[in-house]
């Protein structure tokens, strides 16, 4: 367990316990789904101390949600299952206190319908939003999400995921600016050195809870780190060798086993203006008994992990802690410490330029595909006319049948490309244009703030800093040079 130290315990100031987990609850696909999700529900209900807010991802089946509510209603009497897309977004929020408002915000950029085997476009990924009134009178705005997964080594979905991070950052930012206690949590499918993480933690006016409590945590997992260290020190939630759905051996290896693929993909972000971290840990690591698990994916030891992800569990104090934020800023860049949590924050213009370059490159690719599909559609119409003329004049039934068969194939493929081009790709290109325009306006403000900041303090060329109005605040570990940070960015791409 990782703690923020005694200075984070603010006397009788109220605190809340927050939980998030990707539950891998795909119907027909996820193995032992009902038994695993039932165990997740039981462990949430039995947690001591109990949780006040719970956010779940990949909780697709409404019957599983009904069972969850039955098991947890005594401690979490309020809940919402969010509906989105063609088959649902799999997002759930539970609360100890009444949910006064809720909404489902769909991401404008959300995968491609042609990748139907991945399903991201069909589930309608977005942000499940809930406003909860705490007994202290404060409003807690909860934003539960599941960003687009990379899937490929080349990560052709990086632009979509970055745009999604921008959208949830705007929601978080709005909540913070209203004076609400903002909490953004879920499976973000990003590592701490990624563009998406930088966007959320800067433009969203929030801090990564793990880094608030453990500010010296490296952005990239060091080589040859063992599984126990990955979980307890680095906060790894996914791809751990101690997860039965990821391990390469028939039974779980010792905790000291090297864990080169373990990574932190699940997060709880909090607003440091109004909250601070008392305690944070990675949970749900203990496998459950599963006698029928005798081989294949999930191992052969008669047990299995509750999901392919572990949970993140945080205790937040509903009061700021400037010392904690100073420690975070100092650890990320000791020469540039901001003593103000009220100043506006902006990404460095160089990072914004990198995002704009990413958007431009992806837009060029999609523009090519958009025109290719439309050319195919219009060409198919011409081909159909020619094929029907051929059928009309053909003296042989066999030839006529073959021409009609080809005409059907041309009609189907051309029609699909027309629909995809006109409807999906047209809307995608407009969403990309909107994202680009917002970034350009943001860059103008960031450049002005950067200029004002540069007149007050000298920023070393070997480090990257967040820009604030009148101050600069470090974002990354001081041991990272500018070249090393740049490498991290391209690795995440």
Number of separate domains: 2
Structural class: alpha+beta
Radius of gyration: 25 Å
What is the helix/strand order? EEHEHEEEHEEHEHEHHEEEEEHEHHEEH
Distance between the termini: 31 Å
Mean pLDDT: 85
Low-confidence stretches: 1-11, 334-342, 457-493
Biggest sheet: strands, sense, closure? 7 strands, mixed
Number of strands: 18
Spatially, the strands of the biggest sheet line up as 1-12-15-2-3-5-4
The name CATH uses for the topology of the largest domain is: Deoxyribonuclease I, Chain A
Query: Given this structure, which CATH class of the largest domain is correct?
Result: Alpha Beta
- By DSSP (H or I, 4+ residues per run), the number of helices equals 11
Shape: globular
Keywords:
11 helices; metal-binding; Endo/exonu/phosph_ase_sf; Deoxyribonuclease I, Chain A; 493 residues; disordered C terminus; disordered N terminus; globular; magnesium; transmembrane; 2 domains; 6-stranded mixed sheet; Sph/SMPD2-like; alpha+beta; 7-stranded mixed sheet
How would you concisely characterize the structure shown here?
The chain has helices spanning 33-46, 62-72, 120-123, 158-177, 195-203, 209-213, 227-232, 322-332, 349-393, 397-454, 482-492, and strands spanning 2-3, 15-22, 53-57, 78-81, 92-95, 99-106, 126-133, 139-146, 181-187, 207-208, 266-270, 276-283, 288-289, 303-304, 311-317, 345-346, 465-468, 471-474.
Characterize the structure shown.
Helix 4 (158-177) links the parallel strand 8 and strand 9. The chain is globular, with a radius of gyration of 25 Å. The longest helix is centred in the last third of the chain and has 58 residues, at 397-454. The chain has 493 residues and is α+β, with helices and mostly antiparallel strands. Helices cover 39% and strands 18% of the residues. It folds into 2 domains: 2-329, Deoxyribonuclease I, Chain A; 349-492. A 7-stranded mixed β-sheet has the order 1-12-15-2-3-5-4. It has a 6-stranded mixed β-sheet with strand order 6-7-8-9-11-10. It is built from 11 helices and 18 strands.
């Amino acid at each position: 367990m990782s703690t923020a130290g005694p200075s984070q315990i603010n006397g009788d100031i109220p605190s809340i316990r927050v939980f998030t987990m990707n539950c891998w609850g795909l119907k027909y696909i996820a193995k032992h789904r009902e038994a695993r999700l039932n165990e997740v529900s039981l462990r949430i209900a039995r947690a001591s101390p109990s949780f006040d807010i719970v956010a779940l991802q990949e909780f697709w089946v409404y019957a599983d949600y009904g069972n969850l509510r039955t098991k947890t209603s005594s401690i979490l009497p309020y809940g919402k299952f969010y509906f989105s897309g063609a088959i649902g977004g799999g997002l759930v929020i539970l609360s100890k206190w009444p949910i006064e408002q809720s909404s489902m915000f769909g991401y404008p950029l959300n995968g491609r319908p042609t990748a139907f085997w991945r399903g991201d476009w069909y589930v309608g990924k977005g942000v499940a939003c809930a406003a909860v009134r705490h007994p202290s009178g404060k409003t807690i705005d909860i934003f539960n999400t599941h960003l687009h997964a990379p899937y490929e080594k080349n990560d052709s979905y990086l632009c979509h995921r970055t745009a999604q991070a921008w959208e949830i950052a705007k929601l978080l930012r709005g909540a913070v600016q209203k004076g609400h206690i903002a909490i953004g949590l879920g499976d973000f499918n990003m590592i701490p050195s990624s563009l998406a993480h930088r966007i959320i933690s800067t433009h969203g006016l929030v801090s990564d809870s793990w880094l608030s409590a453990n500010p010296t945590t490296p952005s990239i997992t060091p080589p040859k780190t063992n599984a126990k260290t990955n979980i307890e020190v680095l906060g790894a939630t996914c791809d751990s060798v101690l997860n039965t759905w990821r391990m390469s051996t028939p039974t779980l290896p010792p905790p000291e086993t090297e864990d080169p693929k373990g990574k932190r993909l699940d997060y709880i972000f909090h607003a440091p203006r109004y909250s601070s971290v008392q305690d944070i840990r990675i949970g749900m690591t203990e496998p459950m008994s599963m006698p029928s698990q005798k081989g294949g994916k999930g191992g052969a030891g008669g047990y299995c992990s509750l999901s392919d992800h572990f949970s993140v569990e945080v205790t937040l104090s509903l009061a700021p802690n400037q010392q904690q934020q100073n420690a975070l800023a100092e650890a990320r860049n000791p020469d540039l410490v901001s003593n103000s949590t009220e100043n506006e924050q902006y990404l460095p213009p160089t990072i914004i330029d990198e995002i704009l370059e990413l958007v431009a490159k992806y837009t060029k690719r999609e523009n090519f595909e958009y025109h290719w599909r439309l050319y195919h559609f219009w060409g198919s119409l011409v081909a159909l006319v020619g094929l029907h003329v051929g059928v009309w004049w053909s003296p042989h039934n066999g030839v006529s049948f073959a021409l009609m068969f080809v005409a059907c194939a041309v009609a189907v493929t051309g029609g699909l490309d027309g629909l995809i081009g006109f409807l999906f790709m047209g809307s995608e290109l407009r969403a990309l244009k909107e994202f680009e325009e917002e970034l350009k306006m943001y860059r103008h403000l960031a450049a002005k703030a950067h200029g004002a900041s540069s007149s007050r303090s000298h920023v070393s060329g070997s480090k990257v800093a967040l820009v604030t109005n009148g101050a600069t605040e470090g974002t990354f570990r001081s041991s990272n040079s500018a070249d090393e940070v740049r490498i991290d960015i391209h690795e995440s791409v």
